[in-house]
Automatic annotation (TrEMBL):
Keywords from the named record: Glycoprotein, Membrane, Receptor, Transmembrane, Transmembrane helix
Pfam family for this entry, one: ANF_receptor
Protein name per the record: Uncharacterized protein LOC106164867
Protein source organism: Lingula anatina (Brachiopod)
SUPFAM superfamilies: Periplasmic binding protein-like I
Taxonomy of the source species: Eukaryota, Metazoa, Spiralia, Lophotrochozoa, Brachiopoda
Gene Ontology cellular component annotations, sorted alphabetically: membrane
Record gene name: LOC106164867
Length: 1073
């Protein structure tokens, strides 16, 4: 169909000729040129001309105006009148080529290094890309064209594109250019030479971009460098192949090396690109399976190497003793990132010691760029590269090349000048002219032959496949490229996948069903050579799952540039188990960071927990509001110069998913996936971490507290946990809370039960909302007031058993009221069970936790007359103003913000999401307010308490607030954190809504509650409050209901028909105390 569409040509109604180029673009591009003109003070866009096929034709004058709207007599000029600095990049669209082919292969290599802000490509030639790949490509074409056994009557031509180690946009531009002007694709009815496919030696990210383009024409790409497992995805890249294996095999080789050396505890570092992320993901997966422990994973973002301080912080983190027993660093980084790491290591420690062994994947491999001038810090490195045999004939070919004989490679003269430091033509770069007797020696070219066999074999793969295709489509002329074969070149991929032959270096060439080549790796050690220089020495191979490692030849360098021992003598293992190990799950964990001088950790229950599949559930908007309050408080503090001085407060935030196990997991992941730095353009800095905010629920808070004691011993400030257990400083030594404690809540519940004249009460609770110690304390308080507690029990794990709980409660003799401690979801399920069991009018519910309106939806008859307690905290108008200024793009790096925005405004920010209605972009919290939750003021006060505590600590110890300038006085160690706890506990300030705040002697917040009574259509009505240990209750405002919904009066007095002993006897079978 595409072939016939390309042949379509007709005249449009507007007399334009409609036809298509081979790549599907319109042949005759046409644009109308319109000019905004004033006509009777009305702005009108009038057409003043056209642009057709590169020619501009103006049909009427263009009008221009000054700032007052007066038409100018002439055109406004826009030109450089003095010396100007141009910011647009100079593009380099040159190709190298071998003409005369019947079909064309496109080579894509890095002939130059990446340029700068002015030039897209550097003037520096990449010798590996030039000699080892570009020339190997031309050499392979020569071999095929001279080989009588392969395509005897068909000639292969070639075009080489220079990627310049740049992004994929450059390649798209260049490929588009050659498809428009140089070559055609299969099925095109044109005379241009057809393109058979591409041979590439670029990064995995670049290969993906190129392949997406080539897939439009079903053109294959055969790579000898792109190793990311993502490229094995045949759904996305059905025509991609490679001469090498994917990083799945390379990871197996690296793990086998570690096992052979008995290295079981390692640090990992990876580049933030397709190659690094996919390689690291596979490494984490395999390491966990093999019982090896990854101490931490560090991601190197693309902007890191541009700032020395960034890279020094990365290296300092590796060597500063955070993981003193991890001596091996496994690396999936680009060559430029590897060099930046080594440079930072050199700046920090020079030649004093080398406590780290680098174990690097193929991107470092045998490249000279990472190690050039850095021998002292690179020595001892173990690198992997794709194993291929050296081709002696190719070496002789390289040494025979001269600028005079190698005209097809347009960059060869640049290589010659750079290598010999002379000029061939007039040049300001070099001072001397190149002599005519210069030549490349064997030692000059030897380092650049590692990939040559794979490049040559890639060319032969196309040649052999084309030969087989011609035999099938041209049976009458099997040695020539007939028209039918030419029109079916897009089927060459099928022929490639059937190949299995011995390559130019004597190794097997074949592809598996994913298009991956035979897994073969050479293992190299960067060590001192006989002439006292340094170089890569081959110490082993890994071929199709079999490791052959010469451990006795692996050297480790310690001090004074001397090989003191073999690498096998280095111990890299966890000496004090259990050690925390990073995993693939941690790599994928969402979090939001914005590091500053001080970084405050935050743990928020942003989503509910789904117990049935052990995952995070729906977003909790009232809990996301706490994260917004956290952001708000930090923003206010950073605007207040009296707090933290000139230092700035940042944050790092996780979602606990309202689950204790997950909360503990995300806390322990803090240093297992450490990102020390901000997203650009924020400055990348090392930060101070001494405290955290979290959690909000008792069980999650306790889990985080326990995990904290096993590791960092940070100060923990909770805005929501209320259990008295946190007053035990032996179990929770660095714990404070801006929330009130349950002690006052229990006293309030006791007073409320007494005031509404109930003599018999039951208690039901869940682990998520109360513990047995809390329940026991409440029972003691109730029975101290002469109130019987019967039918006390913990809610079952299965909600299917809730109907049985209601039946048992209704069967308790004399019971009319139940105190409940449960989450909102548990409460709703229990009330639904009450509706099914007809408990309306029989049981009055008294909740120790506040209920939202959603809890009573559909169960209003069951809930009528019930009571809930709501913490009474002020609302802060400044926070409302902060919310009103937010837009959908306010927190672009927050992984949960857009979800919150969509849920709050009930609209979608992108097509195909949860909501059919698309957000207009005008939504605001002014038109749909977010009512402040009672936790919000606690969250704000917690952040302020931390910031003030830090301020007072630094002023007392150092006289100023400065992380680096006060490191000796406040090193941020365990002692500093203990002192910070003391300072925070003593703060007293004007907090949220201007209300005074300070901690109690037990480091708790102040206790204030509202008592709410559910009154049907009127909803929750405030009928009392608790303050300073006293309950004030308006008995006249309270409404109780019978089963029919009729209002009942409160009993005139508490009546107990039997002593408590007899109530317990009657209900003994399930009273648990």
């Amino acid at each position: 169909m595409m072939r016939y569409l390309r042949e379509v040509e007709f005249v449009h109604l507007d007399n334009r000729t409609i036809a298509f180029k081979d790549n599907g673009e319109v042949k005759h591009a046409m644009y109308g040129v319109k000019n905004a003109q004033l006509t009777d003070n009305v702005l009108v866009f009038n057409e003043v001309g056209t642009w057709v096929d590169g020619k501009l034709s103006l049909s009427s004058p263009i009008e221009m105006y000054d700032r007052n709207g007066t038409r100018t007599p002439s055109y406004v000029t826009s030109s450089c009148s003095d010396s100007c600095e141009c910011k647009n990049k100079q593009l380099d669209n040159r190709f190298s080529r071998l003409d005369g082919g019947d079909v064309v292969l496109v080579g894509i290599f890095d002939a130059h290094l990446e340029g700068d802000e002015v030039k897209e490509c550097s003037d520096i030639v990449d010798k590996l890309g030039m000699l080892g790949e570009t020339e190997a490509f031309f050499y392979g074409l020569d071999l095929v064209n001279q080989d009588p056994s392969v395509l005897p009557n068909v000639t292969l031509g070639g075009i080489v594109l220079d990627n310049c180690n740049v992004n994929a946009d450059r390649l798209s531009r260049q490929i588009t250019s050659i498809l428009l002007e140089e070559v055609s694709v299969a099925g095109a009815n044109v005379d241009a030479v057809p393109m058979l496919g591409a041979v590439s030696g670029i990064s995995s990210t670049g290969a993906m971009h190129v392949q997406r383009f080539l897939e439009v024409y079903k053109l294959p790409q055969i790579s000898h460098r792109s190793s990311s497992p993502l490229l094995s995805d045949k759904a996305r890249f059905p025509h991609f192949l490679r001469m090498i294996a994917s990083d799945v095999a390379q990871v197996d080789a690296m793990i086998d090396i570690m096992k052979a050396m008995n290295w079981t505890y390692v640090i990992t570092v990876f580049s933030d690109n397709a190659y690094g992320r996919a390689g690291m993901r596979q490494f984490l997966r395999k390491a966990e399976k093999e019982g090896l422990c990854v101490a931490t994973q560090i991601m190197i973002e693309n902007y890191f190497p541009s700032d020395d301080a960034v890279m020094e912080n990365v290296v300092q983190y590796m060597i500063a003793g955070v993981f003193p027993n991890a001596k091996v660093v496994a690396m999936f980084v680009t060559a430029s990132h590897a060099r930046a790491i080594l440079q930072a290591r050199n700046r920090l420690l020079g030649n004093t010691s080398n406590e780290i062994i680098w174990l690097a994947a193929d991107a470092w491999g045998l490249a000279g760029r990472p190690v050039s001038g850095l021998d002292s810090v690179a020595r001892g490195a173990i690198t992997l590269d794709f194993h291929s045999q050296t081709l002696p004939a190719f070496g002789r070919y390289l040494t025979s090349l001269t600028p005079e004989t190698n005209k097809r490679n347009i960059w060869f003269e640049e290589l010659w000048e750079q290598h010999f430091g002379c000029y061939l033509r007039d040049s300001s770069k070099y001072s001397k002219r190149c002599s005519e007797d210069l030549s490349l020696s064997h030692s000059d070219v030897a380092p650049f032959q590692s990939h040559a066999a794979n490049v040559v074999d890639g060319v032969y793969v196309y040649a052999r496949s084309l030969q087989n295709l011609i035999k099938d489509f041209c049976p009458e002329t099997p040695l020539e490229l007939c028209r039918k074969a030419r029109n079916n070149l897009d089927k060459v991929y099928e022929y490639i996948t059937r190949l299995d032959f011995e390559g130019s270096g004597g190794t097997r060439v074949a592809f598996d069903r994913l298009g991956d080549g035979v897994p073969r790796y050479g293992i190299y050690n960067f060590q001192r050579l006989h002439d006292n220089s340094y170089g890569y020495v081959k110490v082993g191979t890994w071929t199709e799952g079999v490791l052959n490692l010469e451990k006795q030849n692996l050297y480790y360098y310690a001090i004074n540039d001397t090989a003191t021992k073999t690498a096998e003598a280095v111990t890299s293992s966890c000496l004090n188990p259990p050690c925390k190990c990073s995993t693939e799950e941690i790599m994928d964990m969402p979090f939001h960071e914005q590091y500053r001088d001080f970084t405050l950790l935050g743990y928020f229950p942003l989503h509910a927990y789904q117990s049935f599949d052990d995952t995070c559930g729906a977003l909790r908007p009232e809990m996301y509001q706490q994260l917004l309050a956290f952001y708000f408080a930090i923003d206010q503090i950073n605007k207040n110069s009296t707090i933290l001085g000139d230092s700035v407060l940042g944050f790092m935030v996780w979602d606990t998913c309202s689950n204790s196990k997950h909360g503990e997991f995300v806390f322990e992941a803090f240093d297992l996936n450490l990102r020390l730095f901000n997203q650009p353009p924020d400055p990348p800095i090392l930060t101070n971490v001494m405290a955290m905010i979290g959690g909000y629920f008792d069980d999650v808070t306790a889990a985080i507290s326990k995990a904290n004691q096993r590791g960092y011993h940070l100060v923990q400030i909770s805005p929501g946990a209320t259990s008295p257990v946190f007053n035990n400083k032996t179990n929770h030594p660095r714990f404070l809370r801006t929330a009130r404690t349950n002690t006052g809540q229990l006293e309030l519940l006791t007073s409320l039960v007494k005031e509404i004249r109930r003599s018999v009460i039951s208690i039901v609770y869940s682990n998520a909302s109360a513990d047995e110690e809390t329940v026991e304390s409440l029972i003691a308080l109730l029975e101290g007031q002469g109130i019987c507690t019967v039918g006390v029990r913990k809610l079952p794990d299965s909600e299917g058993e809730y109907d049985g709980v209601i039946k048992e409660l209704c069967s308790v003799h004399g019971l009319t009221a139940v105190i409940i401690f449960a989450s909102e979801s548990e409460t709703l399920q229990l009330l639904l069970a009450g509706k099914r069991q007809g408990s309306a009018g029989k049981l009055m519910w008294i909740s120790g936790n506040p209920w939202r309106a959603g809890v009573v939806d559909g169960v209003e008859d069951v809930v009528r007359g019930s009571f809930t307690l709501q913490p009474d905290y002020p609302t802060d108008s400044r926070f409302d103003t902060f919310l009103e200024r937010l837009t959908a793009d306010s927190f672009p790096n927050d992984p949960w913000y857009r979800e919150f925005w969509e849920d709050h405004f009930e609209c979608g920010l992108e097509f195909g999401g949860k909501y059919d209605v698309v957000c207009r972009g005008t939504e605001s919290f002014s038109e749909r307010p977010l009512p402040q939750h009672f936790y919000t003021s606690n969250t704000i006060n917690a952040v302020y308490a931390y910031a003030l505590g830090v301020t007072y600590l630094y002023l007392r110890k150092c006289g100023k607030v400065n992380v680096s300038g006060c490191f000796d006085e406040v090193p941020g160690d365990d002692g500093s954190i203990g002192e910070l706890l003391e300072e925070i506990s003593k703060v007293s300030f004007s907090g949220a809504a201007g209300q005074p705040f300070s901690f109690t002697e037990e480091n708790n917040g102040l206790e204030r509650y509202k008592v709410l009574n559910y009154q049907g259509d009127a909803g929750f009505v405030e009928v009392g409050h608790w303050k300073d240990g006293r309950l004030s209750l308006d008995l006249q405002a309270i409404k109780l209901y019978d089963a029919q919904g009729n209002v009942m009066d409160l009993p005139s007095q508490r009546r107990m028909s039997l002593p408590c002993f007899w109530y317990n006897m009657f209900n003994l079978p399930w009273h648990i105390y």
